[in-house]
Amino acid sequence: MPARVGNVGPAVFRLTPEEAAQAARAADLLLAECSDTAAAEFPVLAAVHAYGLPPRLRGFLLRMRAQEHDATFAVEGFPVDDAAIGPTPARWGQQPDPSTTLALEACLALSGSVLGDLFGWATQQDGALIHDIAPNPDDADSQVGSSSAELLWWHTEEAFHPLRCDYLGLLCLRNHDRVPTTVGSVGDVELDTSMREVLFEPRYRIRPDDSHLADRRTLSRPEGKKGRLLAAARQRIDRMDREPQRVALLSGDPDAPYLAVDPYYTDIPADDPDAVHAFDSLRAQLDKALVEVVLEPGSILFIDNFRAVHGRAPFHARYDGTDRWLKRVNITRDVRKSRAHRLSSDSWTVY
Ligand SMILES: [Fe+2]
Questions:
Q1: Distance 130 CA to ligand 1 centre (A)
Q2: How far, CA to CA in Å, does 255 sit from each of 7, 65, 187, 197, 258?
Q3: Order of strands, edge to edge, in the sheet holding 266-267?
Q4: pLDDT tens per residue, range 326-342
Q5: pTM for the predicted model, two decimal places
Q6: How far is residue 49's CA from residue 72's CA, in Å, rounded to a whole number?
Q7: Which residues, at least 6 apart from 286, have a Cβ–Cβ distance to it below 8 Å?
Q8: Of 73, 82, 268, 308, whose CB is crowded by the most CB atoms within 10 A?
């Protein structure tokens, strides 16, 4: 990862070898109690064993969470054995031997648990808690994480969804080609008062990204409440696609606003020139603020999804097991706010 210059790029925490060993012990303890990341108790146990992480790391993550100064921050130094993790899967859910990356996924879950509650979407990667991000030949030219040949335009994760994550954790397992991830912070955007006021008003429509839409759904409809929640979630997302509500792109403190924006999926209100102008200014400033970050194996990049946008440069995928491979997790500060969309209070799947 490049050295940080001023306020540009992620704040970086580097584990010492002793701290990496301590984190590995915490991961072992977690996996000894629960080695199934799909289990209901996995996030609870991750939160328990997060107390075993090095205090310096916990302090770093908790300060990032409290201060909200750095929109992206990275933890480096989790050891990755490129041969031992096995080949990059051809598509999500098709890792030949899921056990090869479990210890690293546990480190991602433990670190993420310091920031909040881990959760997954029923409508994405069949409800997995920890996602694979690897190039899929069917998606090469699309706007989803499994694309490659096409630039993945910068965006807020699930900008369209009121229950979007507070943080996204991206653990790099492999990046031989040094494919850059792009990040930009709303902290680097300067807007005059009138434009800011426009962006604080509900004047834009953001549609769901392709990863949630019908043609990616492979999970058959289950019985009972699960089936009802899933059907409702799919209908809701289809409705958000067909007739999205108008939303504001900025929220919170006008002096340090939160941001939710996804230009690729945003309908610009042509009959509202002030909204168009403010949107163009915001987009131009974020374009200017965008920096490239090359994730190294064993690094976790955390993205504050209320402060940062992220994307990825195009790259040439080989589909031979050596392509870029990340693990991704969604983190919310308060899983309770999605209670109406979950099966039970201790379920982490958001429908
Ligand atoms: Fe994304």
A1: 14
A2: 17, 18, 10, 11, 10
A3: 246-247, 204-206, 266-267
A4: 999 999 999 999 999 99
A5: 0.95
A6: 24
A7: 154, 184, 186, 189, 261, 309
A8: 308
